[in-house]
Amino acid sequence: MTHTLGLCSGFRCDGGVVLPGAHIGGQLDCRETILTANGCVLSAERLAVGGSMFLSKAEFIGDVRL
What we know:
Blueprint: E1 5-6, E2 12-14, E3 17-18, E4 23-24, E5 28-29, E6 34-43, E7 48-49, E8 53-54, E9 59-65
Parallel strand pairs: 1-5, 2-6, 3-6, 4-7, 5-8, 6-9
């Protein structure tokens, strides 16, 4: 089974998203998301995405680590 993670269409997180070493078999959809933090807003070292990763119109206020 392929799983998708959708953080899109108005998803907002004040504090950051942490996905180190995660495996997403399908898509990671971050279109039109807003992530803000003092420091790292998206921590995803060693992230594996089996499908596509979408970041169009995403707003990151802080550091992004992929």
